[in-house]
Every structure is written in C-alpha cells, then in structure tokens.
Amino acid sequence: MTLFCLGSINLDHFYEVPHLPAPGETILAESHSTGLGGKGANQSVAAAQAGARVVHIGAVGPDGAWAVSRLKALGVDTTHISEVTAPTAHAIINVDPKGENAIVVFPGANMQQSLTQLKTALLSAKRGDMLLLQNETNLAFEAATLARSLGLKVLYAAAPFNAAATAALLPLTDILILNAVEMKQLSEAKSTADLSPETIVVTEGSKGGYALTSKGKQRFSAFPVQALDTTGAGDTFTGYLAAALQEGQSLQDALRCAAAASALKVTKRGTADAIPSRSAVDSFLKAQA
User: Fold this and answer.
1) Is 26 inside any structural domain?
2) Residues of the chain by 3-state class (helix, strand, coil), percent to 5
3) What is the model's pTM?
C-alpha cells in the first residue's frame, strides 16, 4: 500500500524569541536556524518515519534541490517533485519559551503544481492507496477528484483553514482532520450533521481530541510532555495517523500512535527533521502502558 501526498515544501526559518511579537513591536531573536518544512513535507516525512511507503507530489523552485534531497534522505519517494520558475516556499516561524509559535508562509512554488505531473503520479496508484491533502497547494480539488475515481481514500487536513476550499473538498474526503479552532470555523459555516466525511478527527492540543464516526464520538488522550516547539505537531499527528490506518490499525490504536508521535515531536525543536522514528514512538508507547 502506498500513501501519496500532494503537499507543500518549505524552507523553514526558526527564530527563538522571548515572546511572540505584538503588532508594531520589534524584538531581537535569541537564535536562528533553518530546516525542511511545509505541512505536506512534514506529513510525508511523518508517514515515512511511521513505516509507510510515501510518494510526495510537489514543487520547488530552482533553489530547492536541497529540499528534495532531504525528503529523499528521510525516506520519501521524490520522483514526482517538479522544479518550477517560482522560488521555493519559505516560512518565518517565531517560537516563544513555552513552545508556542507564530508563522508567516510565502507559498512560492507550492502554488505552481503541475496537473500533468499530478495525473502521472496518481495513475500509478492502486485501489486502496491513500491521498493526503492540505490547503497549502493548488490542485487539491483536482487531486481529490481523480483519487476518488481511482478508488483511493482521501485524507484531508483542512489547514490553513479556508472555508471555500474546505467546502469544495468535503464531499471528496474520507477522513477529515482539523484542530479545535478549525472545527469551530467549519461548524460556523456548516452543521456538523451535514458533514460528509466518514471519519472526522479533531485535535485539541494538550487535551487530546476526539473522532466522529458513524459509531459516535470517541475521545483520545494526549501524552503529557515538556514542550519545546509545537511547530509541526499537527502534521506529525496527521502523517502518523495516515500510516497507522494504512497498515490496518484500528482507529483508536491509530489515534493513540499519532498522539504519541505528536507528543515526542514537541519535545524537539524544528519541523521535518524533528519528527520521531517509529521505533522511538513504539518505545514511548510501551513505557506508557
């Protein structure tokens, strides 16, 4: 089984700051570092670290060869990543001493996905494979439409939240993942009873979260850890959840595995490079038993 991800690829700039800046405020950063990021890249890396075969569909600029090499080194198939004229996307990430962040993203090449390349990639898929989507690229609707026609499951992490994009993708989504704020935004636009995905997962940070299915609502717990950087925690959760479901775990077990991976991620600074390995997650879960 293969997990395909149409997703963003960013160069992340991290700035450790004494506090998140207020409007009009200028502060001095205590450190600066860079690394691979983007919701799509993070989710692909997380799923690959969890043990899934992952094919990433994406785009970088002429300056993006390093990102492709890093994805490949982290276990992701990069055959369907194209080079376009726009610069590789980047993100400015401020992180405060409690691990909270404030992020600005320049989308660049992420919004120049090739429809031809997308079709080539997905036509290599087999029925039962899975497609991961977020709101950081173009062609998400086209990808979901084609994936459904080919018998793939569609997992959609509706972030950054966009009401119009989400409304268009909901009828094509099997598994929807949102955080509590995004769920509130969606509920204000659409009744929960009218949502079409068969599974809806809502994450609530340190409170854990819950899943809504035809069998009702089931909660899952978070694992208490000392957070250093929450950037990429949701992407880690999503990638691990997708991989665990693909390998046949029950929803409850997959949620627990994803929550453990997310917990381990926030104990390290960074994004894709800080996502834990499956062996680390399994050891962590064993220690919690």
Assistant:
1) no
2) 40, 25, 35
3) 0.94
Residues annotated in a binding site for substrate: 10-12, 38-42, 136, 235
**Is residue 148 included in any domain, yes or no?**
yes
- Inter-axis angle of helices 65-73 and 39-49, to 10 degrees? 20
- 264, two tokens: 């381990």
Average of per-residue pLDDT across 6-12: 97
How far apart are the C-alpha atoms of 133 and 146, rounded to whole Å? 13
Binding residues for ATP, as ranges, are: 179, 203-208, 234-235
Sheet of strand 153-157, all strands in order from the earlier edge strand to the far edge: 77-83, 53-60, 2-6, 130-133, 153-157, 175-179, 199-203, 209-213, 216-220
Known binding-site positions for K(+): 229, 231, 265, 268, 270
Residue 93 lies in a domain: yes
Residue 75: CB atoms within 10 A of its CB come to 17
Residues 176-232 have pLDDT tens digits of: 999 999 998 888 877 665 668 999 999 998 899 999 998 899 999 999 999 998 999
44 in any annotated domain: yes
Among all residues, which ones are annotated catalytic? 235
Task: Find the CATH number of the domain harbouring 66.
Answer: 3.40.1190.20
Q: Where are the beta strands (DSSP E) in 204-282?
A: 209-213, 216-220
At residue 189, the pLDDT reads: 73
Which residues span the domain enclosing 123? 2-21+32-288
Please give the tally of structural domains in the chain.
1
